[in-house]
Design the sequence.
């Protein structure tokens, strides 16, 4: 009796495994069409994705939010926005909880593990220019004149961000990794870190305001220009679909209008794809 | 943002905290009893399996268990099985059931053997002995250690944020986008109030149960 049961169980197991394996073979785009929606992994920050009424996700807006909605319309599917922990973005993508990382995702950089991001995900065209900047306490601003002055100081940045990679490259001391860019400012204020490296778009929005009025951006330190892309699963066919939609939106002039609205700059490489009518 | 707006936002997150807390108790309290029966079973293989299970669950950080429940199905099958909230409740319920089971076991094994034998002499079935003699005494004895675990649970709910369940701490961190930091520390008031109410409740319950004292 026991033998029979174990044989039945073994057959069932093999059946389920083979079933799941075959179901995996469908392409990303097929799955998205079947679901009728794709899921964007985001973190809330101005001006990319943010809520106009705090805590109410139905008021979500921002450059990336609006762009994703436009692309979804072009593709004929719905878009869903899912908050993620930025440090877990690759796990979220790989496990299928999200279909793309669309949140001011710097594509031309290495992660702090030294691996190019482009090796981990399939990127779309770079669509937006960005840069990282260094933020310090206003009272200590005079001490920071160049990237060399950061050496020997304690840095802080969001775990898994482009800023973290930069911080690690300039200082010989520890870099404190935080789960959100905003939390790095608390490290600064409490004195547990000397400088923070964050997106310039975010810094301009917050530094010098409210509780962050004692912080300042170090204008003297320029970090290489970065570009944002949308990250899809490795070997996905979804990135091509987004690319087609982006170029279409560009040709219709909608992308430029949107960039003007949020005061951001579309990359030259994307602009070059515009086909003159 | 005004104090009032912040409070309302935090209350939203606090609702999620309470939901995790309540649902975990609903599932973990009975599940813990089943596990405790398993770990006291006379059938050796079952006992061994249950004890190893309890060892694993108590030996692995709850945070890691959350990752395992939520992300592992996606890694294995390419698509997620549970949503974030369900995964949280599953991980919390199993984890807390294991801790509860050991408290139950301590309570049950502390009942003198003579009482059970007395029940047998009177011709009671095992089920009758458990429900009429053992259980009520067990409940009385385990109130203080259970109170301890349940209060720990209130604060452990904060772990759910690692798989982005929007509970009160998560909300407070998001509020930092408005250039305000104090809400993060303000959340302590909510936790303290919650635990305060629980403490009073357990005190009252213990008093109710001390029916031998005059």
Sequence:
């Amino acid at each position: 009796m026991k033998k029979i049961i174990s044989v039945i169980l073994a057959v069932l197991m093999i059946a389920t495994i083979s079933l799941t394996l075959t179901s995996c073979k469908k392409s990303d785009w097929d799955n998205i069409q079947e679901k009728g929606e794709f899921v964007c992994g985001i973190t809330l920050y101005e001006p990319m994705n943010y809520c106009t009424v705090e805590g109410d996700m139905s008021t979500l807006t921002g450059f990336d939010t609006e762009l994703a909605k436009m692309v979804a319309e072009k593709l004929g599917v719905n878009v869903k926005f899912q908050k993620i922990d930025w440090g877990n973005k690759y796990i979220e993508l790989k496990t299928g909880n999200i279909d793309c990382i669309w949140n001011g995702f710097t594509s031309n950089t290495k992660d702090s593990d030294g691996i190019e991001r482009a090796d981990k995900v399939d990127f779309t065209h770079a669509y937006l220019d960005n840069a990282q900047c260094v933020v310090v306490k206003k009272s200590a601003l005079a001490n920071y004149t160049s990237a060399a002055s950061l050496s020997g100081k304690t840095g802080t940045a969001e775990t898994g961000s482009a800023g973290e990679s930069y911080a690690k490259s300039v200082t010989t001391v520890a870099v404190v990794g935080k789960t959100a860019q905003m939390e790095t400012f608390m490290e600064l204020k409490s004195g547990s870190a000397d400088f923070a490296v964050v997106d310039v778009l975010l810094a301009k929005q917050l530094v010098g305001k409210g509780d962050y009025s004692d912080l300042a951006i170090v204008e003297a330190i320029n970090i290489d220009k970065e570009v944002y892309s949308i990250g899809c699963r490795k070997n996905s066919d979804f990135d091509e679909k987004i690319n087609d939609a982006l170029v279409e939106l560009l040709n219709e002039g909608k992308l430029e209008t949107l960039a003007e609205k949020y005061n951001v700059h579309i990359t030259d490489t994307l602009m070059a794809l515009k086909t003159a009518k | 943002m005004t104090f009032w707006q912040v409070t309302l936002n935090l209350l939203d997150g606090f609702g999620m905290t309470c939901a995790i807390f309540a649902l975990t108790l609903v599932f973990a309290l009975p599940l813990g009893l089943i596990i405790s029966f398993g770990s006291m079973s006379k059938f050796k293989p079952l006992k061994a399996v249950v004890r190893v299970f309890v060892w694993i669950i108590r030996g692995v950080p709850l945070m890691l268990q959350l990752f395992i429940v939520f992300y592992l199905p996606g890694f294995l099958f390419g698509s997620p099985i549970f949503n974030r909230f369900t995964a949280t409740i599953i991980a919390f319920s199993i984890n807390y059931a294991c801790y509860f089971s050991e408290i139950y076991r301590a309570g049950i094994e502390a009942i003198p053997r003579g009482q059970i034998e007395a029940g047998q002499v009177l011709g009671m079935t095992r089920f009758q002995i458990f429900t009429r003699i053992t259980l009520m005494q067990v409940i009385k004895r385990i109130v203080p250690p259970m109170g301890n675990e349940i209060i720990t649970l209130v604060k452990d709910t904060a772990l759910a944020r690692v798989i982005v369940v929007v509970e009160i701490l998560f909300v407070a961190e998001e509020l930092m986008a408005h250039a305000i930091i104090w809400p993060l520390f303000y959340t302590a008031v909510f936790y303290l109030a919650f635990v305060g109410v629980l403490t009073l409740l357990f005190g009252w319950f213990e008093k109710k149960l001390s029916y031998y004292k005059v």
